[in-house]
Write a structure and sequence with these properties.
The protein is mainly beta and 126 residues long. It has strands at residues 3-7, 10-12, 18-25, 32-39, 46-51, 58-60, 68-73, 78-83, 92-100, 115-116, 120-124. It is globular.
């Protein structure tokens, strides 16, 4: 069974940092493109960042460029999202996702991904 489990969410003050983790089981992340999405109440799911399986090419939403960093540790079969300089508008449930792909390409369209985690809540508030 292919499974992704997120962790690391919580409450943080504006300007603070959090690192989200996404552990994969039942498959090896080496051959998968990975991504992070978020969904705030009453809003559509938004692509935050992705990384290709080949060459580790990355894409970021304009709203998080320069503040968020996606990474992967294939030895630990885990994906990370380092979030710095957090803003109240970053408040959302964050999801990781994966798609089997040998390409150097990735995108942040939710429909492109087949495996999803259950989400972790991030709240940015003073």
């Amino acid at each position: 069974q292919l499974q992704l489990v997120e962790s690391g969410g919580g409450l943080v003050q504006p300007g603070g940092s959090l690192r989200l983790s996404c552990a994969a089981s039942g498959f090896t992340l080496d051959y998968y493109a990975i991504a992070w999405f978020r969904q705030a109440p009453g809003k559509e799911r938004e692509g935050v960042s992705c990384m290709s399986s080949s060459f580790g090419n990355t894409n970021y939403a304009d709203s998080v460029k320069g503040r968020f960093t996606i990474s992967r540790d294939n030895a630990k079969n885990t994906v990370y999202l380092q979030m710095d300089s957090l803003k109240p508008e970053d408040t959302a449930v964050y999801y990781c996702a994966a798609r089997r792909s040998s390409s150097s390409y990735c995108n942040v369209s939710p429909g492109w991904y087949a495996v999803w985690g259950q989400g972790t809540q991030v709240t940015v508030s003073s």
